[in-house]
């Protein structure tokens, strides 16, 4: 069953979390761990998202973000492609 669409509007603040199916790891090694902040920075620059806080765990991540534009879904789609092992 698909998740309902996110409510998106300019200036919104979101707690975003994502994990892999079956709670499998989304990072395989340190290379993946170092890639996440780089791709997060790309997301910030490209989609003009404000990241107030973030944490990357082995099998999920959390973000506290603000969207000056109503573009959260596109930004998170970009972020979720950060590693080949990520099936979020």
Write the layout of secondary structure elements.
Blueprint: E1 12-19, H1 30-47, E2 50-56, E3 60-67, H2 72-79
Antiparallel strand pairs: 1-3, 2-3
Question: Could you please describe the fold and organization of this structure?
Answer:
By secondary structure, the protein is an alpha+beta fold. It has a single domain, classed as Alpha-Beta Plaits (2-Layer Sandwich). The chain contains two helices and three strands. The chain has a three-stranded antiparallel beta sheet, with helices on one face. A hairpin with a 3-residue loop joins strand 2 and strand 3. The two termini are 15 Å apart.
Task: Describe this protein with a few key phrases.
26% strand, 3-stranded antiparallel beta sheet, alpha+beta, 88 residues, Alpha-Beta Plaits, 2 helices
Rg (C-alpha, Å): 13 Å
Unreliable stretches (pLDDT < 50, length at least 5) are 83-88
The average pLDDT score comes to 89
The first-level CATH class is given as Alpha Beta
The CATH architecture assignment turns out to be: 2-Layer Sandwich
The CATH topology corresponds to Alpha-Beta Plaits
- Number of E-state strands: 3
| Helix vs. strand class | alpha+beta
């Amino acid at each position: 069953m698909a998740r309902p669409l996110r409510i998106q509007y300019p200036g919104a603040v979101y707690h975003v979390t994502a994990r892999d199916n079956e709670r499998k790891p989304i990072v395989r090694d340190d290379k993946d761990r170092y890639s996440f902040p780089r791709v997060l920075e790309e997301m910030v620059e490209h989609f003009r998202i404000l990241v107030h806080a973030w944490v990357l765990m082995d099998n999920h991540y959390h973000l506290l973000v603000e969207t000056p534009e109503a573009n959260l879904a596109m930004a998170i789609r970009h972020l979720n492609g950060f590693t080949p092992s990520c099936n979020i």
